[in-house]
Specification:
Blueprint: E1 2-9, H1 17-26, E2 31-35, H2 46-51, E3 56-60, E4 68-72, E5 76-78, E6 92-97, E7 102-107, H3 121-139, E8 145-150, H4 163-166, H5 174-186, E9 190-191, H6 192-196, E10 205-206, H7 213-216, E11 219-220, E12 223-227, H8 229-232, E13 235-240, E14 256-261
Parallel strand pairs: 1-2, 7-8
Antiparallel strand pairs: 1-14, 2-4, 3-4, 5-6, 6-7, 8-12, 9-12, 10-11, 13-14
Helix pairs in contact: 3-5
């Protein structure tokens, strides 16, 4: 059963409902995973998405913050969620397809501005969240699974516009990269995007602060698609829809795509 999956930090699903609808119409992924929905589940405009051919939704939400949702053309059942680091926030949800493939949708904490847990509680929460992910993957080794989402870390030197300049900037610090790598290794996750596009600078996020984000091109690859080794070879066609960053009233993230022949 081949299917195309996209992941996108939408930065408010209700505010940017027209952008979600445009993506569903123009790109037509079979599954769309959204992060930072900033909405209770009952207020997500699921009827509008269903009208476009996406009748299935698995989601966790809260008012004004966080929130994750999986929209699907394909039947998908709710496979639960976990509260990593005990934050009590809507940052993870899982859905299981009829072929048994489990899809994890994550929104890892951004971590605040200072990469020091002694003076920045949010940074400590981010590291704890990643450590809990690592421990869970070690205890419950994932199989036939896909992990997507805004992981809020650009791990490789070519995942950021300037490696040296960002070494002390939250999202690219060595301690964050180490924690993300430990979680990835614990689950034996394969970075599908970088397997398909192994070389060159690759970004999925550009700051709102840039007057001309496209010309400045000071991006980071914060959004990821991973798969377990038993299905990673079935993935192909990875791409980032950079153009979406330039749509009217955009999210600061662009959607990341992959196709799986399963």
């Amino acid at each position: 059963m081949p299917f195309t999956l996209a992941t996108w930090n939408i930065n408010s699903v209700r505010l940017r409902e027209p952008l979600v609808e445009r993506l569903l119409r123009e790109e037509a992924p079979d599954i769309l995973c959204l992060q930072e929905c900033k909405s209770p589940v009952e207020k997500i405009p699921r009827e509008r998405f269903a009208a476009l051919g996406y009748p299935y939704m698995v989601a966790r939400g809260q008012k004004g913050y966080n929130g994750v949702a999986i929209l699907s053309r394909l039947p998908i059942e709710d496979a639960g969620d976990l509260d990593f680091a005990g934050l009590g926030q809507a940052r993870h949800v899982a859905g299981r397809l009829e072929n048994g493939v489990l899809i994890h949708n994550f929104y890892v904490p951004a971590g605040g501005d200072k990469p020091d847990r002694e003076i920045n509680e949010k940074f400590g929460q981010k590291l704890d969240y990643l450590a809990d992910m690592r421990d869970w993957f070690r205890a419950e080794r994932p199989e036939r699974a896909i992990l997507v989402g805004d992981l809020n870390i650009a791990p490789r030197e070519d995942d950021v516009w300037n490696h040296k300049a960002l070494l002390k900037i939250v999202s690219h610090t060595p301690v964050e990269v180490e924690h993300l790598g430990a979680a990835q290794e614990a689950g034996r996750w394969v970075d599908v995007t970088r397997r398909d596009i192994p070389r060159g600078r690759l970004y999925s996020w550009w700051s709102y602060r840039a007057r001309d984000w496209d010309a400045a091109d000071k991006g980071r690859r914060l959004d990821h698609v991973w798969a377990t080794p038993d299905i990673a070879a079935a993935a192909h066609g990875s791409r980032i829809l950079r153009a979406a960053r330039g749509w009217e009233k955009p999210s600061d993230h662009a959607p990341v795509f992959a196709t799986f022949d399963l």
